[in-house]
Amino acid sequence: MEDSVNAPSLSKAGEAAAGLKVAANGTHVNGETSRWTPPSWTTKPIKQDVIYEDRAAVSKALAKLERCPPIVTPTEICKLKERLRDVALGKAFLLQGGDCAELFDYCNSDMIESKIKLLLQMSLVLIYGAGKPVVRIARMAGQFAKPRSSPTEQYNGRTITAFRGDNINGYDPEERAPDPSRLVSAYFHSAATSNYIRASLSSGIADLHSPLDWELGHVKEEGIKAKYETIVNSITESLRFMKTVGADSAASSLETVELYTSHEGLLLEYEQSLTRQLKSPPSPHQPQGLTNGTHSSPQEETKQYYNTSAHFLWIGDRTRQPHGAHIEYFRGIANPIGLKIGPSMPASEIVPLLDILNPTYEIGKITLITRYGASAISTLLPAHISAIQASLHNGTVIWQCDPMHGNTRSTPTGVKTRHFESILSEVSDAMRIHKEMGSYLGGVHLELTGEAVTECVGGSEG
Question: How would you class 461 by CB atoms within 10 Å of its CB: exposed for 0-12, middle for 13-18, buried for 19 or more?
Fold first, then answer.
């Protein structure tokens, strides 16, 4: 009796999502909705959908998520928006990286720390070389779901559901049925990871006085290791001088950094459950009072819908249909968002998508994450840049190069890998093309890990 009394009830919005997730198939009702609400995506056709068997289990999981506290706050989200505004204006550079897809087992201190340290190392080199601040966003604390080209695969002569990520089903062939309780597990693993990231940063893991503590165990080539150590020694000498003259006594920024979290917003029932209407912190780019200069008044309190599962979310290349469910959901949240752009994106579709996602032309709101492949970027990127430059969105977007997904190759044994030369080539071509066209490459989006694995051939690993 006690369980039934205390069982959380599901909101009407949650009921709309729960009802959708146990449909006989993935076909959704087309509905034209001008007013956005968190569940308005349920009226649109959807790609990469997950269908569960048990309506009661779905309702129970979503009701639990609706009662859970936010993982991130509007203040943190808006701080990131300010940083991304600087990136869009060419004043900073965006470094985003992490696992292709997290597993629940990755939620442990060693693996979290190793990825933090790797991002710190990369950002240190970027800051030193480019002379600009670096905005760090981790593909962590929620990057569980995997989009698939096929919902099924063959195993021992039978057809089974493909592994879609730890928040959907298990890797074991006997655990492939989608399980809604994994949505709740995903929340708690994300919250624990976010909590440990914050604790590590506040405890000095990013202290610039000890950059060699970040380790270089993954680097085998002595020349690259020596170059990094030269940069570190130069910074250390500068810090020693600052300390000598008393210039670093109040420099707390030398002891920690800002690190934000992100993931692909694939499972909309999960994202909706963590979307909350919350008070927005004051923005320095919004008017604070009268514009005639005579006096100002406090900014009126406003509330917006924030996705509180992560600071930054992106729309995948497979789910960016202009009239689809994912675009409908993303158009209503206040978070900064990314949009993957691949070879299948016609230049004519980019601006209409931005009109939906950023109708107010907010600077830094949208990050365009390009993923063409080294052999195709020179053909495709110029047309996409031209489309933006000819629109009202020119100067508002961040261009970010993802040199990973377009350069995946399979070995004769079926193992997927990438050649470092292809990755470097796509980044170099992106920088060149943006410069030639009067544009600005504002960031890179990388799959990376601090573990001793080989997903790329070449580079510092040889």
Answer: middle
The candidate with the shortest Cα–Cα distance to 264, out of 385, 402, 380, is: 402
Residue with tokens 């995506």: 41
In whole angstroms, what is the distance from residue 291 CA to residue 310 CA? 35
Cβ proximity of 87 and 312 under 8 Å: no
Sequence length of the chain is 462
Please tell me the distance from the alpha carbon of residue 434 to that of residue 79, in angstroms, as a whole number: 27
From the list 12, 13, 5, the residue with the least C-alpha distance to 38 is 13
Query: In whole angstroms, how far apart are CA 376 and each of 213, 224, 320, 322?
Result: 39, 29, 20, 24
Joined together, the tokens standing for residue 273 give 């459950």
Closest among 372, 350, 309, 312 to 98, alpha carbons compared = 312
DSSP at 181: H
Give the span between the Cα atoms of 376 and 371, in whole angstroms: 9
Phi, psi dihedrals of residue 443, rounded to the nearest 5°: -175, 175
Query: What is the chain's pLDDT, residue by residue, as a tens digit (462 residues)?
Result: 344 445 567 887 788 787 777 654 344 444 444 799 999 999 999 999 999 999 999 999 999 999 999 999 999 999 999 999 999 999 999 999 999 999 999 999 999 999 998 898 888 889 888 889 999 999 999 999 999 989 999 999 999 999 999 999 999 999 999 999 999 999 999 999 999 999 999 998 887 656 555 565 555 667 767 777 777 777 677 666 666 666 555 555 556 789 999 999 999 999 999 999 999 998 877 544 333 333 334 456 799 999 999 999 999 999 999 999 999 999 999 999 999 999 999 999 999 999 999 999 999 999 999 999 999 999 999 999 999 999 999 999 999 999 998 887 666 666 677 788 999 999 999 999 999 999 999 999 999 876 655 566 655 554
The whole-model pTM stands at 0.87
Please state, in angstroms and rounded to a whole number, the distance separating the CA atoms of residues 22 and 103.
Answer: 25
- The DSSP line for 62-76 is HHHHHHSPPSS-HHH
And the tokens for 163? 């592994």
- Encoded amino acid at 10, one letter: L
198's tokens: 């914050």
State whether residue 5 is helix, strand or coil. helix
Indicate the residue type of 75.
Answer: T
DSSP output for 135-188: EEEEE-SS------S-SEEEETTEEEEPP--TTT--SSGGG-S--THHHHHHHH
255's CB contacts (< 8 A; 6+ apart) are 204, 206, 207, 208, 209
